[in-house]
Every structure is written in structure tokens, then in C-alpha cells.
Amino acid sequence: MSNFMQYAIQLAQMVEGQTGVNPPVGSVVVNDGRIVGLGAHLMQGDKHAEVQALDMAQDKAKGGTIYISLEPCTHYGSTPPCVNKIIEFGLSKVIYAVKDTTLPSEGNAILQKAGIEVEYQHSTEAAQLYEDFFKAKNNKVPEITVKVSTTLDGKQATDNGQSQWITNPEVKQDVYRLRHTHDAVLTGYGTVEADNPRYTTCIQDGKHPTRIILSRKGDIDFSKQIFHDNLSEIWIYTEHESLTSPNEHIKIIHLADCKLDNILTDIYERGVGKLLIEAGPRVTSAFLQSKYLDQLIIYYAPKIIGGRGIHQFYQTDHVIDLDQATQFEIISTELINQNIKMIMRKK
């Protein structure tokens, strides 16, 4: 892979989690061996990466090559098709790293008909970036990551409910960065009641995710600290029709049936493309048993706390036979000051 394509992929990775239901894309325009334009899709509804890069390059783009992390779009959405812009600027070649299987028409044919050479330069790194995006777009639900902080014996808290802090401060910083790369973080109201969290991103210039709370009954104590800042919106999903919001940054979303399918569809329609689940055993277990899970991240503290396992992070109503157990593939492991971070995907 060329350095220019690597730069385009890095640009896409830098904006991951801030493009809503649109893909993170990076683009680099090169002419005579020199970079003359750079671009990234910064937010949903904004200019696409190719347009950003070409607007920077201007006349220097003519006869050049554009490197793109994802195949350029061919449809009219909130912005015109990127293939039109590429043709307009007179580029001689387009190189992209991942085919967009969700496109309504063939970009290659459109560009080649205009006399532009097109090269598909596959990148495994870029493909991993878009794997969950394609699935989410087809299913109309967000990309979902479940995050769990636990002891070696699988407890999120002691039987008495003590949970602060199971993992170390360095893990907390890593979780802040994880929130930064997601549009929203979801939890159950039970966790809000027990832990009084804020779910913000305490890193320099970090992006605070939308905070989503599930409360079927709608019995909410608005004195909890999460409700007393306006760093990001709070959405409360409930079946309680008479629940009202105490201020404008808290949105009450009434659903007739707060089942997972309905909630996730509504969240996606509201522009959330990447959703992080940080919750207690009940909500965590619901997502681990669902068809929607894309990625599981577990932070293990080198502790065992015993007890009856009231707060075991994964719980089911019935015993699962070993041959029916959900299998995961380990993508990576990392040691964070004696705590272990494990990233997995469902097989």
C-alpha cells in the first residue's frame, strides 16, 4: 500500500465516531508526487472527504490522483455525488481502499466513462473500519460495542453493590477515549441509580457522546448528577407516557414497546451510527444475547471478589449448554498497568 493511501486511512480513523450514520472517510489528492489536498468527512451532512480535499487542491488537482479510504459515492443525499466532483476537477486517477457495497450504482463505470482511471487497492485495515458500518446501514441500526469492566471472576460489583473502582485509573482514561469514538453511550436507569455516573469524556478536546438511558417504567430521579450538565443531550427511552423533561437538553422518547429492536431503530433514525453500551448486568446481558452485537471490549482487573454473583456481567434465565455457547474471536489484547483490555468479535 502506498503512503498516500495510508494517510487517507489515518484521516478516516481520526474522525471515527463523529460522522453519525455516515462512514468516516479520508482522502488525499496528489500531483507530481506532492500532496496538494487533504480531506476528511467531519460530520453528518457536511462535505465528504473527497470534496474537502479537492476544495483544498483547487487547480492543482487537475491531472492528479485522489486516494480515498472508501469508494466514492454516486448518489444524491445531503450532498451531491463525489464522483461528479472528481470528474469536475479533472483528475486522471482514483484509487480507493474499500468497495462500498451499499452504493446504489457503480462508481467505477461512471468514472471510467469520464476517462478517469480507477484502481481498487484493497486494505485490510480500512476494511475493518467499515465492516460494521455496512452491516449497520443495511440493518438500519447502529454499530454496537459492549464495554465491560470486571474482576477475573466476572463481577461488575460486589454482592453489596460496591463497584468503584474495580479497574484502575488508566483504564478509566482508555474508556474516556472509547466514548470519544462513539456517537452515543447507552445504559440502564438502574446503573444511573446505583453508580450516579456522568458518561462524559474527560480528555482534552474530547467529544461528549449523547447519553441514552433506558427506563421502561420512567421512575426517574432527576437529582442525579448526569442530569445537571448540558455537555451533551440525554435521551430517556420509556413507556411512561406522562414522564416529562425538566429542561431542554433532556429528551423524553416515549415508545409503546421499549424492546431492543424498536429502541435501536429509533436511535439510528436520530443519527447515531456508533453506539457504546456501558451498563449493568441486565442491559449488558440483553445485548450480549442479541443479534446486534458487533464488538465486545472487556477490561479485566486482576482481582477476584467472590460472593453469589448478583452482579455477574453476563446472566441468563436458563443454563446454556456448552455446544450452544456464544463464541468470540479475540482481535487484540493489551496490558494497561496490570489490567487487561481484550477486544473481541462474535464468531
Automatic annotation (TrEMBL):
Domain of life of the organism encoding this protein: Bacteria
Gene3D superfamilies xref list: Cytidine Deaminase, domain 2, Dihydrofolate Reductase, subunit A
Organism whose genome encodes this protein: Staphylococcus devriesei
The keyword Chaperone appears for this protein: no
Cofactor note: Binds 1 zinc ion.
Catalytic activity: 5-amino-6-(5-phospho-D-ribitylamino)uracil + NADP(+) = 5-amino-6-(5-phospho-D-ribosylamino)uracil + NADPH + H(+); 2,5-diamino-6-hydroxy-4-(5-phosphoribosylamino)-pyrimidine + H2O + H(+) = 5-amino-6-(5-phospho-D-ribosylamino)uracil + NH4(+)
Name of the protein in question: Riboflavin biosynthesis protein RibD
UniProt pathway annotation: Cofactor biosynthesis; riboflavin biosynthesis; 5-amino-6-(D-ribitylamino)uracil from GTP: step 3/4; Cofactor biosynthesis; riboflavin biosynthesis; 5-amino-6-(D-ribitylamino)uracil from GTP: step 2/4
